[in-house]
Specification:
The protein has 112 residues and is an alpha+beta fold. The chain has one domain. The chain contains two helices and three strands, in the order H-H-E-E-E. It has a three-stranded antiparallel β-sheet with strand order 1-2-3, with helices on one face. Helix 1 runs antiparallel to helix 2. The longest helix has 46 residues.
Length: 112
Amino acid sequence: MKPSSDQGSSPLELVTLTALLVMPIGLALGLYQQLANELAAESMARHSLRLAMLTSPEKPSQSFDSAIERFSKDWQVQDVDYRYWCSLSCSLVTLEIQVGQATAIQTMGLPK
């Protein structure tokens, strides 16, 4: 029998296989960050609107800044954008919060 005459490049194979194994981990980390932003946006929208409505039911818009700041610290997110609006008769107040690429909208009725 002849001795094996395999001539290969094990460093190249190692780099290729490592890249193939690490690539899904990088994608999973990106997905994890997106899901974390979505959870933060949903929670912040719901709880900020609720806190603002409980703090000042007549004019909840005055309490949005402090409520959103409070919950953004809890979720440890920095880039939070928000906007709010009310219906024609202002019986419904809607708050939209954006954290990264995630957006959440929450609506609540004003007490009469």
